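Inverse folding, one chain.
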């Protein structure tokens, strides 16, 4: 097989053995025989048999079982490429232990592109044969152009030759069939371009230069250390940590930048190109299979020096990683909720510690966990208190919806409408933020009160009027909007309740018919290219009012955007989430930070029914640190993170009775000891998702307790019935 060191058919008598970890949710590594004609080392990628299949795995170390040698199956081949480095193997083991995930399931994230283990295929090219032209060959004008192009010229691929000669591929193939052209193989071109670390960046302010110099010093000194880059929105944090990236690349090390949203990459990539003269490699779910394959392989071979990506990029096989940057470190999108459940920011800190190199956490609204680590001296901090280029922070105003309610079936209060009119009159731009996709979050029957619900989930169906469908945002179920009530069959009785961004856009279009309006949400922007196109339209002032969900909340810079209206500032404050206030503050502060980022002064209007809430007061006063200290006191008193530990146990299955029995069994065998509390079992708030019923238990423990040991001892006592699945979420972010 291409790209493998194959084994002879006859096995040597005195064979050896080793453990091979497979990218499957298995308990651990399996032992295999190492034939004499094959040399393997820990980290090598190998091909092995498993049942009737052949799989790629990684040599994990010495064999651990006592299985007789003759019963071991042999390793079939070793892939001809660099192995997984020791740091990455230790990282996989660490993540598996911490999250109570089988190591093979974590390895699967690191081996997410199995095709990349095969080397790149050579390209077929053509050169001119050193022969006389056959008399029978009819030399058309097209054939003459092909032959003239190859005189004293290197071989060209079929697409290149056809394009440069201005002919069809068939002309080239006919000349090859006649023996006039000779096929040959070329090594595939290396598409990797290296950033120019000597290229000058933008002029930095004094505060920026001090912070950048401190980060560069940490990179040059080496060694593990966490630094919070704490800067207000628009302070130029990206340009500051670019200097640390340049120092890392100049030292011959690789750098990784994590971003929480694909939508953030467009303007970030523009800044990177301006700074380094080329684009970095990207890593996220929207990439094609070919690009993922080439990027994974180039990272493993050390040819790629810089990657920017979503949380999964943390598991790429970097052999020389020297710096990690976690931008918007507070963002909840860094929490992986399916499969191996992990917090990418926290795991990035672990990866940096194991690799012995610096990590930068950047945010204008850092998480309470990070702030507490700074307070206790575990993390360093660098402050950027001012916006770059003389811009000032926007003025934040409260609109008390009890005093200034909007008209019936409207969502914009009179003060916000007036501010929008003033902004449009000044030829400036506005953004309206509402963190609800679609047209309306609920559809009900006016005749009988029936609410349209997902048949697979405990969730209402969201109307998407532009797409003419109802959709569940949890499982993806979609159906056409019915013309009559499915319960009472009343015709024309279905009514949309509440606003989504589409309904808000409808109201804006009626109120301001001459304004150019665009909607930005995850279901209206199909990938980074669509995001980039929208950003270009906003930057070119082709849009007057941008209406969006959290995809517009952070990372974007629009010089003419001077007004931000937050339509429902109370939306995230309910639901029982222990981080509800903190996350609402972070999100709204980030949204507010889009206003007035250049020379024009910005304004922010918060529509709220709770103007006295600490979140609203902190946004108006700008007293972020006081708000975080109050949050910390509340959590400290309750023993909640970061001052205590949490773990959620989520049971799910198609049979509700079986799930309930499994939960009761878990509850009976729950640990009973000082410093530990177990809540539940109880049906989850989202009691059914994708047709599976769900029950939850929540364990709360003091920080001194070894959570993983206790959980393993607890779960070892329980045998789950068939069809019931258990997920363990250490440090949960979602309580649904």
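Residues assigned per position:
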């Amino acid at each position: 097989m291409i790209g493998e060191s194959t084994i002879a058919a006859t096995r040597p008598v005195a064979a050896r053995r080793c453990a091979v970890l497979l990218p499957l949710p298995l308990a651990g590594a399996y032992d295999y025989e190492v034939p004499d004609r094959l040399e393997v080392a820990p980290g090598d990628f190998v091909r092995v048999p498993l049942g009737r299949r052949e799989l790629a795995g990684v040599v994990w170390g010495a064999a651990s079982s006592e299985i007789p040698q003759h019963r071991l199956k042999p390793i079939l081949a070793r892939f001809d490429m660099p192995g997984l480095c020791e740091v990455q193997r230790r990282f996989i083991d660490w993540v598996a232990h911490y999250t109570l995930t089988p190591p093979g399931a974590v390895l699967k994230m690191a081996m997410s592109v199995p095709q990349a283990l095969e080397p790149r295929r050579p390209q077929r090219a053509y050169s001119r044969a050193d022969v006389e032209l056959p008399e029978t060959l009819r030399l058309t004008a097209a054939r003459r152009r092909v032959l003239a192009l190859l005189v004293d010229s290197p071989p060209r691929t079929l697409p290149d030759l056809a394009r440069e000669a201005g002919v069809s591929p068939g002309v080239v193939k006919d000349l090859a069939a006649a023996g006039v052209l000779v096929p040959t193989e070329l090594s595939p071109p290396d598409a990797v371009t290296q950033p120019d670390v000597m290229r000058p960046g933008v002029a930095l302010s004094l505060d920026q230069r001090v912070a950048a110099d401190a980060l560069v010093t940490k990179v040059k000194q080496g060694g593990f250390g966490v630094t919070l880059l704490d800067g207000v929105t628009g302070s130029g944090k990206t340009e500051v940590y670019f200097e640390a990236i340049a120092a890392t690349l100049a030292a011959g090390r690789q750098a990784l930048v994590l971003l929480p949203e694909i939508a953030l990459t467009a303007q970030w990539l523009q800044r990177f190109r301006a700074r380094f003269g080329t684009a970095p490699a990207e890593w996220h779910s929207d990439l094609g299979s070919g690009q993922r394959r080439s990027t994974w392989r180039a990272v493993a071979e050390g040819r790629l020096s810089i990657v920017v990506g979503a949380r999964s990029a943390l598991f790429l096989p970097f052999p020389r990683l020297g710096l990690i940057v976690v931008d918007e470190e507070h963002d909840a999108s860094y929490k992986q909720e399916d499969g191996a459940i992990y917090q990418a920011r926290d795991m990035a800190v672990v990866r940096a510690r194991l690799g012995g190199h610096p990590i930068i956490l950047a945010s204008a609204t850092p998480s309470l966990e990070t702030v507490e680590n700074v307070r206790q001296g575990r993390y360093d901090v660098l402050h950027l208190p001012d916006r770059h280029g003389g811009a000032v922070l926007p003025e934040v105003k409260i609109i008390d919806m009890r005093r200034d309610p909007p008209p019936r079936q409207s969502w914009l209060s009179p003060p916000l409408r007036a501010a929008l009119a003033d902004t449009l009159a000044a030829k400036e731009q506005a953004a309206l933020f509402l963190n609800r996709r679609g047209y309306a979050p609920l559809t009900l029957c006016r005749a009988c009160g029936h609410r349209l619900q997902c048949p697979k989930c405990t969730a209402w169906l969201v109307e998407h009027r532009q797409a003419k469908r109802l959709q569940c945002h949890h499982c993806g179920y979609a159906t056409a909007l019915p013309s009559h009530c499915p319960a009472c069959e009343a015709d024309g009785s279905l009514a949309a309740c509440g606003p989504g961004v589409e309904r808000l856009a409808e109201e804006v279009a009626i109120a301001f018919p001459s304004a150019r309006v665009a909607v930005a949400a995850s279901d209206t922007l199909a990938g980074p290219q669509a995001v980039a196109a929208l950003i270009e339209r906003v930057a070119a002032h082709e849009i007057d009012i941008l209406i969006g969900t959290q995809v517009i909340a952070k990372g974007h810079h629009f010089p003419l955007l001077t007004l931000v209206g937050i339509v429902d500032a109370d939306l995230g404050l309910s639901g029982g989430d222990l981080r509800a206030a903190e996350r609402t503050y972070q999100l709204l502060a980030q949204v507010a930070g889009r206003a007035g980022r250049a020379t024009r002064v910005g304004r922010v209007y918060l529509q709220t029914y709770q103007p006295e809430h600490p979140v609203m007061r902190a946004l108006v006063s700008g007293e972020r640190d006081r708000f975080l200290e109050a949050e910390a006191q509340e959590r400290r008193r309750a023993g909640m993170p970061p001052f205590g530990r949490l773990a959620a146990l989520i049971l799910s299955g198609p049979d509700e009775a079986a799930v309930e029995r499994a939960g009761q069994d878990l509850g009976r065998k729950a640990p009973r000891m000082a410093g530990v509390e177990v809540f539940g079992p109880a049906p989850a708030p989202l009691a059914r998702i994708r047709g599976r019923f769900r029950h939850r238990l929540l364990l709360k423990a003091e920080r001194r307790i070894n959570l993983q040991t206790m959980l393993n001892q607890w779960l070892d006592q329980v045998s789950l019935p068939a069809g019931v699945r258990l997920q363990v979420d250490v440090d949960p972010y979602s309580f649904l």
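The chain has five domains: 4-111, 127-186, 206-389, 391-436+499-632, 644-730. The mean pLDDT is 90.
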